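User: Sequence in, structure out. Go.
Assistant: Echoing your sequence, followed by the structure tokens.
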Amino acid sequence: MNKRAPAAKRTAHRTRKRPTPPAAPATPSGAASPVAKAPIIACFGEILWDCLPRGIFLGGAPLNVAYHLSRLGLAPLLVSAVGRDFLGDEALRRLAGWGLDTSRVARVRPATGTVRATLDADGVARYVFDPAPAWDHLPAPPAPSARRAAPAAVVFGTLALREPANRRGLKTLLDAWPDALRVVDLNLRPPFARAAAISWALKRAHLLKLNDEELATLTRPRRVPATPGGLAAAARHLARLHGIARICVTAGPRGAGLLWDGAWHWADARPVEVRDTVGAGDAFLAALLAALLARNEPPELALSAACRLGEYVATQDGATPAYRVDARGRPQLVR
């Protein structure tokens, strides 16, 4: 597992003030059964179809995170776009079938996005994206309704921020939701790992998730040893550079680490038989947020829960396998 799956994937600046995570409601009891007063998590960015050797699967990092948040009992709000085409129709049909809120998924003229993913011998995915997809053209978001509760967090990555118009739209939402935790899931995808999008996202991050390879990219020419201690040192360096107090680093088959307000936590990975790693990091992030924001678990327990779900998804085909969770948030396969 490596970028694997997140446990199967892969002069200091002043730290900006971070919003305090909301108090936790009851522990979720299973898939798509929202916990009492479940936190709303907005997920901004791409919806696309993953074209894998074993089939075509609906995906995109924000969508994947939203799907797993719904399985874990939270209330995701997906902010994205699909085309006015068959793939867009089918995407909306599946989202509705999963019980996801599609009120912020726009229909636009460009085609619904697709990505061709190839897998190496270890199940690690490499991606080739179609040009000019629908999610590159997210319409300006409407003003948030005063009747609707503001989200506890907003999740976004860099891929959908490659176009300036999308960055302006996201800024509008962030300004409207000033108390939301801003969660950046870096997801560098060459050749679209553009400096302007990366800088824009890092400048606004309260919690940054990235893998060990991305950590090495952001801290060059500094060498990042492939050990928990080496990753901790690099994460602290990155935190000082960008004023981000909370950084989560996934390190494939080694495990994952979490720098949380000065303290470093580490969770070892457990060996699993990898089917493919597509979406494992997104499941990891959803489980981390569910543990922190819904169950109010301490960082070390939240990190362990995130590793377990990431590992589980890496054993399945595609990013959105069917499963339920038990009272402790552990995935149980639906047959």
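User: And one key feature?
Assistant: The chain is about 30% helix and 25% strand.
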